[in-house]
Amino acid sequence: MKLPLFLLLLLLETVAALHLRNDAPYLDSQESQADLSQDLEGSGEQEGESVLTEEGIQSEGEQEEASNCQDAFEDKKAMESDPGALDENFQCPREEDTVEISGSPGCKTCRYKLVKTHRVFAVAQNTCRRCYNGNLVSIHNRSVNNQLQCLSGQVNDFWVWIGGIVKDPCSTIHWVDGSSANFRHWAHQRGSGHCLGLSTRGGHWRRECCERRLPFICSF
């Protein structure tokens, strides 16, 4: 018995549709595997970028640590190279080498002493502690800054030590007496050292090498 032509065509289309339906999961699987491979490659690239970033952070940390070690080395070297830092030879500044002033009238305990003797930063701080039971001065307002600038004008040097230590490129100040850094008076050129100097001419601050020998101001 012969089938009509249109029934034969309908049968062929049905068979073709069933064949495509059976192949669909296989095609989907191939596409999914291709997408997964791309995702894995992208993940590998991101992981590589993450490793590079961590290496960069670690490198920066090592550089900062090296800088801190250098600071400690400079301070230690300054202490060892200056006779005033050694217990058996240590002497407080002579009275004629110092100038003392009182702070503002409302602050009975604010006393400042300018020491004209040149010392490296670490020895200057040691002198303030041992001789005057104080610290290198910290400055927290413009009035005190101007007062100390006038006081420091009695020496022939352009800079005197004050009690600030700077460890990072952003010039964050840490006062040796532990007080907060709530006032700044930077010069146009901030310098590149790690210890803070006060200009005897304009009262501005600049970073100086800690091994430099300068007069200094104690507060007690």
What is the fold named in CATH at topology level of the largest domain?
Mannose-Binding Protein A, Chain A
What is the tally of helical segments?
3
Q: Give the terminus-to-terminus CA distance.
A: 122 Å
Largest sheet: 5 strands, mixed
User: Could you tell me the strand content as a percent range?
Assistant: 15-25%
Mean of residue pLDDT? 74
Question: Residue ranges: pLDDT <50 for 5 or more in a row?
Answer: 22-69, 75-86
CATH superfamily of the largest domain: Mannose-Binding Protein A, subunit A
Number of domains: 2
Q: What is the alpha-carbon Rg in Å?
A: 37 Å
- Spatial strand arrangement across the major sheet: 5-4-7-8-6
Estimate the helix proportion, in percent.
Answer: 40-55%
Number of strands: 9
What CATH architecture of the largest domain would you give?
Roll
Q: State the CATH class of the largest domain.
A: Alpha Beta
Shape: rod-shaped
Domain C-type lectin: 112-219
Pfam families: Lectin_C
Region (Disordered): 30-69
Protein name: Proteoglycan 2, pro eosinophil major basic protein
Main traits of this protein?
2 domains; Proteoglycan 2, pro eosinophil major basic protein; 3 helices; rod-shaped; 22% strand; 220 residues; alpha+beta; Mannose-Binding Protein A, Chain A; 5-stranded mixed β-sheet
Provide a short characterization of the protein structure.
This is Proteoglycan 2, pro eosinophil major basic protein. The protein has 220 residues and is of the alpha+beta class.
